[in-house]
């Protein structure tokens, strides 16, 4: 087949663009819930004891991605108080309790203009997190903390655009 805009005035204006994209789609990372007070003076845990958990059912306060109306990512009532000095049965990280998934798209559009054999102008535009997907920080995982599960920041960067022009001579 023949390439479009191979010759003529339109090829000088609309031809020769380079488009690139990097896409990242990943599930969230596992979380581990702990209690500072449960360990007592057991030194090997450095004050971070695993909890006794029968089920992680209902651990997330709102699972549809709409966190308005609740300042907490976790449902505090699912995690019982841990008796002091008693080690729990929870794994360090539980694959059922995860941070929100990660969705990220980056794009670049570039064009080179050659004026002479030794002179060229490169123009480029780049968009990082182009669709501005927010990945919220699920908060502190220590059940003794006042900030347990409070959504107070985001884990990823917001949308960033950058433009560049280079003249080679």
Explain what this protein looks like in three dimensions.
The structure is a single chain. With 169 residues, this protein is mainly β. 4% of the residues lie in helices and 31% in strands. The chain has one helix spanning 9-14, and strands at 17-26, 30-31, 34-35, 49-50, 94-98, 102-114, 120-128, 160-168. The strands form 3 sheets. It has a 4-stranded antiparallel beta sheet with strand order 1-6-7-8, with no helix packed on it. It has a two-stranded antiparallel ribbon with strand order 2-5. Strands 3-4 form a two-stranded antiparallel sheet. A hairpin with a 5-residue loop joins strand 6 and strand 7. The radius of gyration is 26 Å and the shape is rod-shaped.
Which structural class should the secondary elements be placed in?
mainly beta
Beta strand count: 8
Helix fraction bin: under 10%
Uncertain runs are: none
Q: What about the largest sheet?
A: 4 strands, antiparallel
Cross-sheet strand order for the largest sheet: 1-6-7-8
Q: Can you tell me the number of structural domains?
A: 1
Distance between the termini: 35 Å
Order of helices and strands: HEEEEEEEE
3D shape = rod-shaped
Q: Kindly state the mean pLDDT as a whole number?
A: 78
Roughly what fraction of the amino acids lie in strands?
A: 25-35%
Tally of contiguous helical segments? 1
**What's the gyration radius in Å?**
26 Å
């Amino acid at each position: 087949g023949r390439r479009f805009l191979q010759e003529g005035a339109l090829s000088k204006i609309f031809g020769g663009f380079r488009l690139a994209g990097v896409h990242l789609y990943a599930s969230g990372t596992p979380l581990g819930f702990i209690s500072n007070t449960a360990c007592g003076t057991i030194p090997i845990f450095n004050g971070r004891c695993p909890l006794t958990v029968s089920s992680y059912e209902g651990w997330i306060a709102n699972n549809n991605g709409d966190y308005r109306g609740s300042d907490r990512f976790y449902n505090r009532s699912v995690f019982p108080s841990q008796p002091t000095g008693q080690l729990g049965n929870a794994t360090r990280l539980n694959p059922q309790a995860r941070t929100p998934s990660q969705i990220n798209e980056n794009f670049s559009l570039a064009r080179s203009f050659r004026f002479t054999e030794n002179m060229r102008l490169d123009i480029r535009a780049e968009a990082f997190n182009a669709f501005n997907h927010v990945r919220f920080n699920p908060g502190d995982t220590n059940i003794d903390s006042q900030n347990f599960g409070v959504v107070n920041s985001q884990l990823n960067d917001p949308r960033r655009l950058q433009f560049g022009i280079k003249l080679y001579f």
